[in-house]
Amino acid sequence: MAKKTRRKQAKRTPSGRISTAGATVNPRETVTQQPHRRWLPEKMRKDQRAESALGRLYLAGFLTEGQVVAGERWRRLMADYARVIDAPRPASGVLARMIEEKAGPDTEAPPDDEVRNGVAISDEELRDRVLEAMRAARGEIAARDSSGAVMRMLTRVVIDDVDVQDITYLIVGLHSLATFWRTFDDGYRPMRAVRAPREENADIHETIT
Prior knowledge:
Elements: H1 27-32, H2 53-59, H3 65-84, H4 94-106, E1 115-116, E2 119-120, H5 123-144, H6 149-159, H7 167-181
Antiparallel strand pairs: 1-2
Helix pairs in contact: 3-4, 3-5, 3-7, 5-7, 6-7
């Protein structure tokens, strides 16, 4: 006859499992155990930059500061571009969130040369400048890869904030933008193994294709 074991005396849910209600939760520990941070060295998981895919690659040593700055500038340019052409928001809401949440507080004030006699440039002038900036940036990227793979990887990591799938394409894109915008510092990082990416993001952004 099997020996009976005493059931642990604890508050239980209707299903019979031990209730975790009222248990003390350490917010910092919860943050460091998030799946998108867990692959980083423990001391880097608490860094605020670990919240974004671009920031995690920088903390892990795969990207330079100049490349990250170029990535952030590309994100802001994409937001400005979507606004001036009044692009429809995709059903997934990814681009909409990028525009409304990220682009708002991060958008830089117009440079001095975009203000004339203390008056900001007109909407038409702003539209022309944004379209020209996008044309030039896309041209730099296309000059290094006509297949579209670099643009897709920039979209995946910088815009969609999804883990990198092919870091070679990402670095080529960020390197070309960093050189073009002169945020470039010390060039390419040595290639190292990266963790397996998440599933391919199937969202399609009409403003990018």
